[in-house]
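Figure-free illustration: sequence to structure, shown twice.
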Amino acid sequence: MAHVIFYEKPGCAGNARQKSLLRASGHEVEARSLVSEPWTASSLRPYFGATPVPEWFNAASPRIKSGEVDPEKVTPQEALVMMILDPLLIRRPLMRIGDHCEAGFDPKAVDRWIGLKETGETVNEGCLLSVADDAA
């Protein structure tokens, strides 16, 4: 099975469910903090591949919900700078296996990529209420 480096927002209940599903599917999960990682443009950019820039963003981020940041109006470079300065803007989780990187948790895409077991539990991309106090 796969060794997944899994960047999460600590305390995010959605990320906890995603990690649980990966582990139940036989994968080894190495959880890291998305917010304390010292991101650079070159370390962050591979997670987004050919995905359109607006899809790089966490739609639940307070700055996006308030309209302060409009993902439709930023360039890739601007997006990376914003995300380095405010990691809560990053769509999560970020996952890396070897040289392959992905942003977000689409169960069907993850299943095609590394395989997931059917658990009967709904696990999606969004963050539910956090174990602590999830605002984004």
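We now fold a second protein in the same way, so the two outputs can be compared directly.
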Amino acid sequence: MSREIIQTDHAPQAIGPYSQAVKVDNTVYLSGQIPLIPESMELVTGDINAQIRRVFDNLSAVCEAAGGSLNDIAKLNIFLTDLSHFPTVNEIMSEYFAEPYPARAAIGVASLPKGAEVEMDAVMVLNGQV
């Protein structure tokens, strides 16, 4: 079993004692991403659309650093402080992912780090890279 820590400057640095992602053999466990701008580590300004897009961009950057893409994600977890944004997540997700879509959960939570309204984490499987 091989274990590799994934890190990229194209996604926000960890704001606690964790890694952006950990690759074990051909499976990559991506830590939760909130809508932080990597360069400033500040929350993106704007409505929920901007926050959701920033989170997908951050996840994408970590996927790429691990040698994959969003389309290699097998399981996506979405955490929302307001589940009324669920249709917006669906709409934007369809712009970032191609079918077949990953397995997914959407969970309503009371709060998220730094006052974010959305956070996502994922499990990615890289084909043919054992």
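Summary for the second example: The first strand starts at residue 3 and ends at 6.
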